[in-house]
Structures are given as structure tokens and as C-alpha cells.
Amino acid sequence: MSENNNEMIERYRGNFLREVEDNVEEGEWVKMCMQCGVCSGSCPLGPHWDFGPQTLFMMIRAGKRDEVLAAEGPWMCTSCYNCIVRCPRELPITHIMHGLAHYAVRMGLAPKNQPTRKFSDLFWKNLKADGRVNELRLGISLYFMHGFVDGIKTALKKAPLGLGMVRTKRMNPMEFFGGHKVRDRKGFHRMLEKAEEIESARIEKGPRPGAE
Ligand code: SF4
Ligand code: SF4
């Protein structure tokens, strides 16, 4: 278990709703949920994940910390905004779902082999390197994310698709050797460092007054 996680368990001592309100993006809205089920019923992925938004919000209020932070649900959200449009209480459900996923990573409790989580790690590393997504390298890293043998099998299976993309100029094989980048890479990295610094300071500030 991460140090962050132990610190938060100690700080909130069984009040998970308060922990979410203080630390998860838009988490202060969770208590407004009236459990009508419209969000989960409207979610195109609802039948395919462990807990939909309605269930997660109920679990937060019931203090089911480990189950919520290890859930796959927050990673399954595709940001279609169906739930936000329909929620009678106007909860920013999509943002809460992404906030929960982000918080689970911070606590070291996010499901390790969840495919969306893996994809988001690969996407971020790819983008961070040069300031632009190198689609060819991203595709290759996705093929090989389950190991070398699996990568070769996937690459062979997808070869006709890749060749079609090259033929129609949707993909340039030379991108593998460099590809397009932002003009000022150093400036771009400085900007990211600053953003990380601001975010860490915001997190360091801890809970709002009166939470402890
Ligand atoms: S639609 Fe809104 S009020 Fe209804 S269960 Fe979902 S979040 Fe709660
Ligand atoms: S935004 Fe996310 S949680 Fe909401 S309906 Fe779409 S996929 Fe489901």
C-alpha cells in the first residue's frame, strides 16, 4: 500500500465521503445523488462494467473505500456525457468518474491490468516525449503491451489494416524514426513541469478547513 494511501486512511478515519469531497474532482457533488439510476440506465457501457455511477456513488456514501478505488467502472467511462445530460440533479458525473480514476492512481489502488488505464499510461508517455502523439509508435506499444509474443501475433493480425493506412497516406512508416514534434520541446517540458508543480501544491494543501 502506498504512503499516500495510508496517510489518507489515517486522515479521514472511515469518512470516505468526506475524503472524496476533499480530494476527487467534483467529489463534493456525490452527496447530491438521489439514487434514481438514470445515469447507469443511460450509460452505453453500463451492462459491461462492475459498478456504474449510481452504484459507485452509493458505495462512496457507504464507506466502501477499497472497492470503489479498485473498481473498473471509473476507467470504463468514455466521456459520452449521456449521464450528465440526463441527471435530474445535474451532477457532473463524467468528471467525477475521471476524478475517481485519477485519485485511485494517486492512492496506488487503481486496477493494474485494466486496459484503459494501460492505454492512458502509454498515450501520456507518447505525448509527453515530443508534445505530439506519434500514432505509429503508440500503435506498436499497444500491440506489445501484453508481451513480445502477443505483440507479434497482434501485429500480424493487423498487418492488412496497417498496410491499408500506409497506402491511403493515413500513416507514415518514417514516423517510427522520429516523427513530428512541437517546435519548442524544452519549453513544452518546462510547461508540463510547472503544471505538475501547481497540481502537487494543490494536492499538498490537503483538505479544506474543518475536514480534519
Ligand atoms: S442520474 Fe444523477 S441523481 Fe440519478 S443516480 Fe445518477 S447521479 Fe444520482
Ligand atoms: S459519460 Fe461515462 S458514465 Fe456517463 S454515460 Fe457516458 S460512459 Fe457512462
What does this structure look like?
- With 212 residues, the chain is an all-alpha fold.
- The protein has two domains: 3-111, Fumarate Reductase Iron-sulfur Protein, Chain B, domain 2, CATH 1.10.1060; 115-196, no CATH class.
- It has helices spanning 3-12, 16-23, 38-42, 53-61, 65-69, 73-76, 82-86, 93-106, 115-130, 135-143, 148-167, 185-204.
- The longest helix is centred in the C-terminal third of the chain and has 20 residues, at 148-167.
- The chain is globular and about 55 Å long.
- The protein starts with a helix and ends in an 8-residue tail after the last helix.
- Bound molecules: iron/sulfur cluster (2 copies).
State Rg: 20 Å
Structure annotation, total helices: 12
Largest sheet at a glance? none
First-to-last CA distance: 22 Å
Mean pLDDT comes to: 90
Order of helices and strands: HHHHHHHHHHHH
What is the level 1 CATH name of the largest domain?
A: Mainly Alpha
Instruction: Characterize the overall form.
Output: globular
Q: Which ligands are bound?
A: iron/sulfur cluster
Which secondary-structure class do the elements indicate?
Answer: mainly alpha
Number of individual domains: 2
CATH 2nd-level architecture of the largest domain: Orthogonal Bundle
Would you tell me which CATH topology of the largest domain applies? Fumarate Reductase Iron-sulfur Protein, Chain B, domain 2
Question: What oligomerization state is this entry in?
Answer: single chain
Residue ranges: pLDDT <50 for 5 or more in a row?
none
Share of helix among residues? 55-70%
Tell me what portion of residues adopts beta-strand conformation: under 5%
